[in-house]
Amino acid sequence: MLNFLDAPHTLHLASLEVGHHLYWEIGGLKVHGQVFLVSWFVIGLLVVASLLATRNIQRIPSGIQNFMEYALEFVRDLARNQLGEKEYRPWVPFIGTLFLFIFVSNWSGALIPWKLIKLPEGELAAPTNDINTTVALALLVSLAYFYAGFSRKGLGYFAKYIQPTPILLPIAILEDFTKPLSLSFRLFGNILADELVVAVLVLLVPLFVPLPVMLLGLFTSAIQALVFATLAAAYIHEAIEGHGEEEHG
Amino acid sequence: MEIFWQLATGAALLGTEVAEEGGGFGLNFDILETNLINLSIVIAVVVYFGKGFLSNILGERRSAIETAIKEAEQRKQIAASALAEQQQKLAQAQNEAAKIRASAEDSAKAARDSILVKAEQDIQRMRETAAQEMGSDQERVINELRQRIAIMAMQRAENEIPSRLNDDVQQRLVNSSIAQLEAS
After folding, report:
1. Residue A112 falls inside a structural domain
2. Confidence at residue B129, expressed as pLDDT on a 0 to 100 scale
3. What is the pTM of this model?
């Protein structure tokens, strides 16, 4: 649908390959290979960083240990701000993973010259610019908050649908669908749009003009990761606390 | 694991297939097309500013942790010395307590002995007075009994006399009495 962007092929400038994917067929499923490749790269990056940080743990942290501890502290504070002092601990790994994965994905898409590597079809980019990735992440968030609600209240979790008044039941049910929808589309849209804008600008003026947009893209990417993780934590908190019962702050 | 293996083989297969078709994996060194210049500038900017920012924050964090650990260690030392002091005081107090206890036991023993001795004396004295009283009572009772018996004997005698005494008997009695008097 965005194939009109391929038009300047004749000008021998950069070509945009939106909608082209490196398809792998696994058990009858067509998967987007380039997303997997970059996801593996991101996962590997995170794992290696974690291993390096914890390989030689010092009492007074320095170097990468210090950096990763800082990152951990950041995610922990994020989870604590949303979930509250009492509940946040078990959710730090989940929310931290979301944040770190999305953040590193976004920045790897914005910083690493993936186009150096030519694929048979499609091109390497941030995994989060593929709707499948973001939908998967958003559905994980949905599962997480349902799990949180049920494990906390059992079937009483359904009571929140008719609180404060049963009239809002349809809206409450609708919310469960709009939450993953908005989460996934927000992230996907922002990242893809940013990459497209940069790509189009590069297409038109290859040098220097895209720079502000690229820097802005870095900023947006970071913000989007933060927003996703924060919203995930907020949804989990909402499921744990219920509607307006013991809400504080 | 299975799925990863499948993925890997699938990737390899697909890669070779597509490579045969002419696309294939490869490297693209077209500087403009790969946006290399802009990216390197962005990376340079990020590294330049990010490094300053990060090293600043991380340094602060490190020094904060260092001071926190140092303070904690100082507090630990202070606490340890206070503990030692208090333990010493405790030992002293225990010593004192033992001393007080020993002296208290001594005095208790002395008091017990003195009380025992006194009690024994008292018992002795009471026994003596009791024995005395008993002796005097016995004497009194015996005297009384004696008197009563004498009186009763006299009465019986007086009662018997008129019935058994006649002139003949009286004559003999008087004579024997006179004979007795003469003999003596």
Report:
1. yes
2. 93
3. 0.69
Chain A residue with minimum CA distance to B43: A111
Number of domains in chain A: 1
Asked whether the beta carbons of residue A69 and residue B27 sit closer than 8 angstroms, the reply is no
In a domain? residue A189? yes
CB contact under 8 A, A115 and B34: yes
Which tokens in the block code for residue A213? 């947009």
Beta strands A29-32 and B26-27 are: unpaired
Residues counted in chain B: 184
Rounded-to-integer distance, Cα B172 and Cα B169, Å: 5
Chain A residue numbers touching B57 (CB-CB < 8 A): 70
The answer to whether A35 and A101 are in contact (CB under 8 A) is: no
What is the DSSP annotation of B63-121? HHHHHHHHHHHHHHHHHHHHHHHHHHHHHHHHHHHHHHHHHHHHHHHHHHHHHHHHHHH
Q: For residue A195, how many other CB atoms are within 10 A of its CB?
A: 23
Please name the member of B27, B45, B61 whose beta carbon is closest to the beta carbon of A118. Answer: B27
Judge: B7–A24 Cβ closer than 8 Å, yes or no: yes
Rounded to a whole number, what is the distance in Å from the CA of B24 to chain A's nearest CA? 4
| Terminal C-alpha separation, chain B | 156
Give ipTM to 2 decimals: 0.73
CA–CA dist A210, A229 (Å, integer): 28
Are B15 and A120 within 8 A, CB to CB? yes
Distance CA A159, CA A18 (A): 45
A218 within a domain of the structure (yes/no): yes
Mean pLDDT for B3-12 is 55
Residue A29 backbone phi and psi in degrees, to 5: -100, 140
- Asked whether A91 and A149 are in contact (CB, 8 A), the reply is no
Question: Is A232 within a domain?
Answer: yes
CB under 8 A, 24+ apart: contacts of B79-87 = none
Over residues A49-98, the pLDDT tens digits come to: 999 988 888 887 878 888 899 999 999 999 999 998 888 999 999 999 99
Domain that holds residue A33: 23-248
Q: Do B69 and A59 touch (CB under 8 A)?
A: yes
CA A165, A166, A171: angle at the middle one, nearest 5?
Answer: 100
